């Protein structure tokens, strides 16, 4: 139904370079998530695709045709805004009907389409209300309905779940995935929530300071982060990063520990590296040849698991453990490392060292 | 402007009544002084208005009575009749001036609103080069008092043939009201999220349609408030009116009323009655849109 391609988008607001050469290729029918912290340029990217932002450089192609100079109306896209942007004087029905009215649909067509989409989103009983008479979750559904009432080339969603409470957010996540599966269509979805990105996306583009850091499936981004920053941004609890260098067949840590050197490490001896270890690849309960000496700093019980904070020299390592784990702060312990799942980054460039076969 | 006096009086009086508990504890003596001072101020402010009202309904011999008659005067409506009906029984000159005032004030307000509102929208929504400087320049045209620029404008108008024409007055009042409209309306437009227009454009409307159909309806209270202020300025304006017009057919009410004073005898009853008639439309209009006026004055004071 629609492909969206953005090439070399550049945009500055005064001194701030919001977009610094953003390139995205959104395949037809995919759920494409643009993930990044606030200020990364996600919203600007989306607004540029929508035609709401004048670009300094770069082009936007829709269905393979250059649409850079097109007006928002001519681009045939639908967008859900973070603030929902529901028209305050109009009822939910009129809000949802607006895209059809703008395109001069007949009133029977409009009423059919609105009925259908409100059924899909379970908002039939809200149709005669105005935005002021709705809760945040209800407004969010109406905003979604206004986008889904038509079959545009692509749906653009700007952090649509950010303003909802946690329970609703989880609910709507499932709902959106269901809608995408049942309606089809291309979704470009912007969020700063990595859980949303990992759980909903077909493909994720990670954005930072106006630059794309990595594009891939959620698994690829999580398992094979392209650089140290992506590794740190994606994943909860945060990946633990330890400064070290390769020496012969050992990895020697700045904090005095040594680990066997993974065979795939290509780094020169003595070159500064960062060892990235995810909490689930570490253990305080098993013994291993590859282990880090440390002392217990604190426990974070999270119900289904407990995150153990271990101090290795001056650096902190987070370890995922069974909920029943116990210990007293200051206690000496050793952290078993699954080196096959460890990440190594060049400490100077931040780039991941290639791991053949992974 | 007349409105500033009207607003200045009730405001402090109300503040005294609604004094917070903390100030009440300061002692009744202080409160008594406050009330006495405010009453004295109110009397001083309102006495001329009261005197004007009274003079307009007194028989002529009571108007000139010495000592002045406050209460036991003879009531008459003859002065009000004189405002509208001429000595020959036809329309009076003054009624023509009032009509001129209505036309000039109305047309200049409409012109200023039609030009100013879209300009305010543009200044609010678009990134422009040196936007702040432009806005300051626009405002700076209001810095100069009319009397300073009236001579050059008189000379220009003479060249253009705009002297002693209603069109000339409409244009000069609009020129003074457009900067005011832009500044006041920009505040109102800023309050309306730009995302409504973004959403409308994605719905398939053009930028102008998005403004007209989605933003403009939300601006109506602001436009009403701004238009009333512009109307009051044009209605009350005296300096340009007296310098740029001379004939009875063009003259607006302020110079016409002023012209009543200065003969060998002054018909104070007629002066008072025409002043009352002159003040009424503004008061009625301001009363009708008072909610919007307050919104206009307190704009930005409260974050919603």
From TrEMBL, chain A:
<dbReference type="InterPro" id="IPR012340">
    <property type="entry name" value="NA-bd_OB-fold"/>
</dbReference>
<dbReference type="Pfam" id="PF00005">
    <property type="entry name" value="ABC_tran"/>
</dbReference>
<dbReference type="InterPro" id="IPR003593">
    <property type="entry name" value="AAA+_ATPase"/>
</dbReference>
<keyword id="KW-0813">Transport</keyword>
<dbReference type="Pfam" id="PF08402">
    <property type="entry name" value="TOBE_2"/>
</dbReference>
<keyword id="KW-1003">Cell membrane</keyword>
<dbReference type="InterPro" id="IPR047641">
    <property type="entry name" value="ABC_transpr_MalK/UgpC-like"/>
</dbReference>
<keyword id="KW-0067">ATP-binding</keyword>
<dbReference type="InterPro" id="IPR027417">
    <property type="entry name" value="P-loop_NTPase"/>
</dbReference>
<dbReference type="GO" id="GO:0005524">
    <property type="term" value="F:ATP binding"/>
</dbReference>
<keyword id="KW-1278">Translocase</keyword>
<dbReference type="InterPro" id="IPR017871">
    <property type="entry name" value="ABC_transporter-like_CS"/>
</dbReference>
<protein>
    <submittedName>
        <fullName>ABC transporter ATP-binding protein</fullName>
    </submittedName>
</protein>
<keyword id="KW-0472">Membrane</keyword>
<dbReference type="InterPro" id="IPR013611">
    <property type="entry name" value="Transp-assoc_OB_typ2"/>
</dbReference>
<dbReference type="InterPro" id="IPR003439">
    <property type="entry name" value="ABC_transporter-like_ATP-bd"/>
</dbReference>
<dbReference type="InterPro" id="IPR008995">
    <property type="entry name" value="Mo/tungstate-bd_C_term_dom"/>
</dbReference>
<feature type="domain" description="ABC transporter">
    <location>
        <begin position="4"/>
        <end position="234"/>
    </location>
</feature>
<keyword id="KW-0547">Nucleotide-binding</keyword>
Automatic annotation (TrEMBL), chain B:
<dbReference type="Pfam" id="PF00528">
    <property type="entry name" value="BPD_transp_1"/>
</dbReference>
<feature type="transmembrane region" description="Helical">
    <location>
        <begin position="135"/>
        <end position="155"/>
    </location>
</feature>
<keyword id="KW-0472">Membrane</keyword>
<dbReference type="InterPro" id="IPR000515">
    <property type="entry name" value="MetI-like"/>
</dbReference>
<dbReference type="InterPro" id="IPR050901">
    <property type="entry name" value="BP-dep_ABC_trans_perm"/>
</dbReference>
<feature type="region of interest" description="Disordered">
    <location>
        <begin position="1"/>
        <end position="22"/>
    </location>
</feature>
<keyword id="KW-0812">Transmembrane</keyword>
<feature type="transmembrane region" description="Helical">
    <location>
        <begin position="32"/>
        <end position="53"/>
    </location>
</feature>
<feature type="transmembrane region" description="Helical">
    <location>
        <begin position="167"/>
        <end position="185"/>
    </location>
</feature>
<keyword id="KW-0813">Transport</keyword>
<feature type="transmembrane region" description="Helical">
    <location>
        <begin position="214"/>
        <end position="235"/>
    </location>
</feature>
<feature type="transmembrane region" description="Helical">
    <location>
        <begin position="268"/>
        <end position="289"/>
    </location>
</feature>
<keyword id="KW-1133">Transmembrane helix</keyword>
<protein>
    <submittedName>
        <fullName>Carbohydrate ABC transporter permease</fullName>
    </submittedName>
</protein>
<comment type="similarity">
    <text>Belongs to the binding-protein-dependent transport system permease family.</text>
</comment>
<feature type="domain" description="ABC transmembrane type-1">
    <location>
        <begin position="98"/>
        <end position="289"/>
    </location>
</feature>
<feature type="compositionally biased region" description="Low complexity">
    <location>
        <begin position="1"/>
        <end position="19"/>
    </location>
</feature>
<feature type="transmembrane region" description="Helical">
    <location>
        <begin position="98"/>
        <end position="123"/>
    </location>
</feature>
<dbReference type="InterPro" id="IPR035906">
    <property type="entry name" value="MetI-like_sf"/>
</dbReference>
<keyword id="KW-1003">Cell membrane</keyword>
């Amino acid at each position: 139904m629609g492909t969206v391609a953005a090439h070399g988008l550049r945009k500055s607001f005064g001194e701030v370079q919001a977009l610094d050469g953003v390139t995205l290729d959104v395949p037809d029918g995919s759920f494409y998530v643009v993930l990044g912290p606030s200020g990364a340029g996600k919203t600007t990217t989306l607004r540029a695709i929508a035609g709401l932002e004048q670009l300094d450089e770069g082009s936007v192609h829709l269905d393979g045709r250059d649409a850079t100079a097109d007006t928002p109306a001519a681009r045939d896209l639908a967008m859900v805004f973070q603030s929902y942007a529901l028209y305050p004087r109009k009822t939910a029905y009129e809000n949802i009907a607006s895209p059809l009215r703008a395109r001069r649909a007949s009133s029977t067509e409009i009423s059919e389409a609105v009925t259908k989409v409100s059924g899909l989103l379970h908002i039939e009983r809200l149709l005669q209300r105005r935005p002021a008479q709705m809760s945040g979750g209800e407004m969010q559904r109406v905003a979604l309905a206004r986008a889904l009432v038509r079959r545009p080339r692509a749906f653009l969603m700007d952090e649509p779940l950010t303003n909802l409470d946690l329970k609703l957010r989880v609910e709507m996540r499932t709902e959106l995935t269901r809608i995408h599966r049942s309606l089809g269509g291309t979704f470009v979805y912007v969020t700063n929530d990595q859980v949303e990105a990992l759980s909903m996306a077909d493909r994720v583009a990670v954005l930072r300071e106006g630059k794309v850091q990595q594009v891939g499936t959620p698994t690829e981004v999580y398992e094979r982060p392209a650089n140290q920053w992506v590794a740190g941004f994606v994943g909860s609890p945060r990946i633990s990063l330890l400064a070290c260098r390769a020496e012969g067949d050992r990895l020697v840590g700045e904090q005095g520990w040594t680990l066997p050197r993974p065979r795939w490490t290509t780094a020169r001896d003595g070159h500064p590296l960062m060892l990235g270890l995810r909490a689930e690849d570490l253990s305080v309960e098993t013994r291993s040849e590859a282990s880090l000496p440390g002392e217990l700093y604190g426990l974070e019980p999270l119900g289904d698991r407990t995150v153990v904070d271990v101090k290795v020299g001056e650096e902190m390592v987070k370890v995922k453990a069974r909920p029943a784990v116990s210990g007293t702060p200051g206690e000496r312990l050793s952290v078993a490392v699954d080196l096959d799942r460890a990440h190594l980054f060049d400490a100077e460039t931040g780039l991941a060292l290639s791991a053949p076969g992974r | 402007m007349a409105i500033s006096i009207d607003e200045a009086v009730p405001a402090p009086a109300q503040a005294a009544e609604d004094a917070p508990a903390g100030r009440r504890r300061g002692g009744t003596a202080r409160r008594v002084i406050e009330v006495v001072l405010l009453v004295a101020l109110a009397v001083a402010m309102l006495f001329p208005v009261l005197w004007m009202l009274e003079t307009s309904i007194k028989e002529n011999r009571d108007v000139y009575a010495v000592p002045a008659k406050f209460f036991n005067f003879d009531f008459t409506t003859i002065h009000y009749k004189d405002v509208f009906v001429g000595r020959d029984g036809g329309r009076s000159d003054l009624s023509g001036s009032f009509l001129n005032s209505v036309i000039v004030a109305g047309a200049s307000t409409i012109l200023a609103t039609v030009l100013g509102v879209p300009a305010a929208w543009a200044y609010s929504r678009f990134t422009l080069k040196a936007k702040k400087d432009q806005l300051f320049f626009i405002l700076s045209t209001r810095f100069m008092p009319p009397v300073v620029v009236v001579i050059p404008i008189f000379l220009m108008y003479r060249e253009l043939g705009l002297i002693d024409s209603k069109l000339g007055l409409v244009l000069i009042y609009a020129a003074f009201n457009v900067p005011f409209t832009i500044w006041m309306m920009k505040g109102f437009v800023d309050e309306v999220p730009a995302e409504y227009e973004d959403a409308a454009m994605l719905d398939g409307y053009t930028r102008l349609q998005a403004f007209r159909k989605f933003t403009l309806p939300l601006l109506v209270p602001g436009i009403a408030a701004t238009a009333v202020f512009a109307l009051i300025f044009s209605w009350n304006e005296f300096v340009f009116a007296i310098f740029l017009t001379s004939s009875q057919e063009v003259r607006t009410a302020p110079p016409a009323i002023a012209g009543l004073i200065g003969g060998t005898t002054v018909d104070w009853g007629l002066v008072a009655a025409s002043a009352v008639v002159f003040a009424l439309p503004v008061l009625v209009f301001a009363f009708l849109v008072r909610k919007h006026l307050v919104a206009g004055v307190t704009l930005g004071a409260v974050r919603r």
